[in-house]
Amino acid sequence: MGDTGAMCSRLSVASIIFIGLLFGSYTREWNQPITPYRVVSNLYYVGTNYLASFLIVTPQGSILINPDYQESVPLIRRSVEKLGFRFSDIKIILISHAHDDHAAGCALAQKLTGAKLMVMDADVPEIESGGANDFQYSNMRWPPVHVDRVLHDGDRVELGGVALTAHLTPGHTKGCTTWTCEMKEGNRSYHVVIVGSPNVNTGYKLVGNKLYPQIAADYEKTFRVLKSLPCDIFLGAHGSYYNMDEKLKRLRRGDSQAFVDPSGYQAFIQDREQAFRAELAKQEKQ
Ligand SMILES: [Zn+2]
User: How many domains is the chain built from?
Assistant: First the structure.
């Protein structure tokens, strides 16, 4: 674990970018800039049109969830600055899961900010090997990066009065993480859920998966966990999970409650669980 980290800390920003450009399966259509916005309290959206990244600002510095692709990092930086904050104030970097569209930019974001990278235990080998151990995607690579703090299911990440809880919601990746926190605004308190991913990607083997034998049981756990989480504000690793475009239009028309959507959250989980069960039944028949 430490070896790749030691190597990485000696790499310059230019060499990190170069290594990143050699590999990876970058999708330009997912990386279009959009105007950043405040979701609730001190939680802001700083991602792209398709890749959700969140900034939580505290008096002790900021937390960034999802650096996305390496090519996203400059866009996220611009969004952070557009909101009036400093990119260099980011003290902690978190991810939704170890896929390149959420995590390939970790090394670059860490180099630019000096922030501590904190990752769920089962995703750590992926992140530190630059995607080399993925059970599904052999072409997915990013610059290896040292994980500063290994997280376990239920761990809390705290900074400047904000506490995020890391919920292990595995299946999509082995260490896929759903983040929750409580945000206060005015005299109301909101349960915020940032869903890691409940999706069974095309080609995922749910039955007889030699590289991930417990994958189906892990998805079962994920749906149990997701259904149990109290949710007022529904967010996720992609805006498409929670109809961001439509909610953002409402927010920009002045509806400050646009992202409050407990029933939309439950409906999404139910829909994704049905999709998982249908795929599992199909594969079990084969
Ligand atoms: Zn993914």
Answer: 1
| pLDDT tens track for 40-65 | 999 999 999 999 999 999 999 999 99
Rounded to whole angstroms, the Cα distance separating 103 from 149 reads: 15
CATH of the domain at 122: 3.60.15.10
Q: What is the distance in A from the centroid of ligand 1 to the CA of 86?
A: 28
CA–CA dist 138, 134 (Å, integer): 7
Range with the poorest average pLDDT among 27-31, 36-40, 80-84: 27-31
In the reported structure, the alpha carbon of residue 69 is separated from the centroid of ligand 1 by a whole-number distance in angstroms of 12
pLDDT score at 19: 56
Distance 238 CA to ligand 1 centre (A): 9
250: exposed, middle or buried (C-beta count within 10 Å: 0-12, 13-18, 19+)? middle
Give the residue numbers spanning the domain of 123: 2-285
Residue 39 alpha carbon to ligand 1 centre in Å: 23
The C-alpha angle with vertex 221 and arms to 215 and 226, in degrees rounded to 5, equals: 125
pLDDT (tens digit per residue) in 110-138: 999 999 999 999 999 999 999 998 999 88
Distances (CA, A) of 164 to 65, 123, 148: 11, 18, 17
Cα of 114 from ligand 1 centre, angstroms: 25
